[in-house]
Amino acid sequence: MKQKSGFSGQIGFVLAAAGSAVGVGNLWRFPYLAAKDGGGLFLIIYLVLVLTVGFTLLTTDIAIGRKTGKSAIYAYESMRKKWKFLGVITFIVPVIIMTYYAVIGGWILKYITIYILGSGKEAVADNCFTNFITSPSSVWYGIVFMLLTAIIVYNGVEKGIERVSKFIMPVLLVMVVGIAIFSLTLKTTLDDGTVRTGLQGLKVYLTPDMSGITVQKFLQVSLDAMSQLFFSLSVSMGIMITYGSYVKKDVNLNKAVSQIEIMDTGVAFLAGIMIIPAVFVFSGLDGMSAGPGLMFVSLPNVFFRMGMAGRIVGLLFFLLAGFAALTSCISVLESIAANCMELFHTERKKTTGVLSIIYLIATAVIALGYSIFYVEVKLPNGSTGQLLDIMDYISNSFLMPFISLLSAILIGWIIKPSWIVEEMELNGKKFSRKKLYNVMIRYIMPVIMVILFLQSTGFLDVLISKIQKFI
Predict the structure, then answer these.
(1) Which of 329, 180, 333, 186 is nearest to 268 (CA)?
(2) Cα(337)–Cα(343) distance, integer angstroms
(3) Disulfide: which of 165, 342, 450, 461 matches 15 by Cβ 3.0-4.6 Å?
(4) Do 376 and 413 form a contact (C-beta atoms < 8 A)?
(5) What's the Cα-to-Cα distance from 226 to each of 43, 267, 332, 413, rounded to whole Å?
(6) Taking phi first (over 0 means left), then psi (-120 to 50 degrees means alpha), and beta for anything else, what does residue 38 get?
(7) CA separation for the pair 20, 62 (Å, rounded)
(8) Taking Cα atoms as reference points, which of 56, 98, 164 lies closest to residue 335?
(9) Domains, in order of start, for the chain
(10) Is the Cβ–Cβ distance between 322 and 84 less than 8 Å?
C-alpha cells in the first residue's frame, strides 16, 4: 500500500531528514567523544567517515525508499522476496528505540521547566538528575513528550512532520550558532591566577592530540566515530527508507544527501564549539563526563557559574536539546506508523492512535526502570545497564551494524549497486560519487560492519588481546 502523502519538495524533505538525523547524540555524545578521543583527531576521522560510510548508508536507505515507494518491510520484500526478513529486522529497531526516546525527551523537558521557573540553582543541587530519574513522578515528563510527538505524527507528513521541521530546524541552527559564539567569549580566573578562556577550549577541541597514539588507540577512536555516525544519521533503522518513500521523483537525491550530511555534521561540530570551550573554562576537561552526565550534570554547573546569563543560556540550550529530541522522536514514530499502515492497511490517524497508546505505556515502563521497575544487567560490551540501556544496546549497538552488514551484502553482491545508481541518476541527474559508492557498498562496508558488530558484542577486544599475545 503506497503512501499517498509526501513531502512538498526538496527543502521539506531535507529539513525533515536532517531533523531526524540531528538528535540528542549530536549535542552530548559528539562533544564528549571529541574531548575523549584527541579533539581534532576524532574530528578528522569522523569527517572522513561521514563522507564515505555515512554517504553510502544515507544514499542506500533514501534511494531504496524512493525507488520502491514503500517502508522498510515491503521495500526489502519488493527488492528480493527472500530478503523480507531484513525489512522486519530493520522495522524492529525503531520499535525498540521508541520505547525510550520519549523518556530522554522527558528528562530534557524537566530541565526546561527548571530554567523557566527558576535561576537554574535547582539543576546544580546534589544528585538533582539522579533524584529526578529515580522518582516515579518523572514518568509524567516522558508521557507529555510522547503525546507531543504523537500529535505531530497524527497530522501527517506535510501538515505535521514537514511543517514542524521547517520551523524547528532553522531555529535550532540559529540557537547552536548563537550559543557557540557566546561560549568562545567566556573566561574565568582560577585560584592560582591562571586564566582560562573559551578560545583556549576551542584550541583543545580542534587540535589533533597525537600523544600516546597506538594502532589500538587509533582503532578505538575510529570505532567511536563509527558508532557516533550510526547514532547520529538515523541510518539502518528504516527511517530514511520511510522518508525516502515520501520524496517526489523530481527531487535531486544527490544534492539532498549532501545537504543532510552537511546539516547533521555541521550541528555536531558546532555543538562541540558550544560545549567544549564552556566546560573547559569552568571545569577543565574533567567536566566532559560520558552520557547523560555531560548534559544533565556538567553543563548545568557551567551555566550556573555564568551568573545571570547562565539562566538564559541554560534555557536556550535545553530548548535546543528539546527541539533536537522532538524531531528525532517524530521520525522514529513515523517510521513505525508507516510500516504499520502498510502491514495492516489502516489509515494514519487510527494507526497513530493505537501506537500512541502502546508507546505511552512503554514510555512509562522505561521511565520507571530507574525506580519501580529497576533492574541491573551486564551487557555483552562490558557495561552495566538498566531497562533504557538494554533497549539502547539492542537497537544501536547490536542490530544496526548487523542490518548495515546484510544491506551491504544485498545491494553490493545480490542486487548490485547499479540498482541504487539508477535511482540516483533518475531524470538525468548526475551521481558524482558513483565510483565511491560502488567501492564502499561492495568491499569496504561489509568489513567495517563486521568489525563494528564484533566490537558491540565484546568479541573484538578478545580478538585483539589474543593477537597481541600471539605477536
Answers:
(1) 180
(2) 10
(3) 165
(4) no
(5) 12, 17, 21, 23
(6) left
(7) 13
(8) 98
(9) 10-465 (1.20.1740)
(10) no
Q: What is residue 382's DSSP assignment?
A: S
Q: 183-192 as b/e, with b when 16 or more CB fall inside 10 Å?
A: bbebeeeeee
The DSSP symbol for 160 reads I
CB-side neighbour CA atoms (13 Å) of 403: 30
Task: Please identify which residue in the block is written with the cell numbers 526478513.
Answer: 85
pLDDT tens-digit map of 206-246: 999 888 788 778 888 888 898 888 878 888 899 999 999 99
Buried b (16+ CB within 10 A) or exposed e, 70-87: bbbbbbbbbbeeebbebb
Beta-bridge mates of residue 377: 385
Dist. CA 142–CA 151, nearest whole Å: 14
The answer to whether the CB of 314 falls within 8 A of the CB of 123 is: yes
Find the DSSP H helices in 393-433: 400-409, 418-424
Nearest Cα neighbor of 292 from 141, 97, 98, 106 is 106
Q: Which residues of 418-429 are buried (b: 16+ CB within 10 A; e: fewer)?
A: eebbebbebeee
Cα–Cα–Cα angle for 312, 205, 268, rounded to 5 degrees:
60
What are 75-131's pLDDT values in tens digits? 999 999 999 999 999 999 999 999 999 999 999 999 999 999 988 899 999 889 999
- Are 272 and 34 in contact by the 8 Å Cβ rule? The answer is yes
Q: What cell does 140 get?
A: 509524567
Confidence of residue 23 (pLDDT cuts 50, 70, 90): confident
Amino acid occupying residue 390: I
Identity of the amino acid at 452: L
- Asked if 43 contacts 190 with a C-beta cutoff of 8 angstroms, the reply is no
C-alpha–C-alpha distance, residues 431 and 422, integer Å: 9
The model's pTM: 0.91
- In whole angstroms, give the CA distance from residue 101 to residue 335: 14
* Kind of pairing between the strands at 187-189 and 377-378: unpaired
d(CA 237, CA 94) in angstroms, rounded, equals 6
Residue with cell 541491573: 376
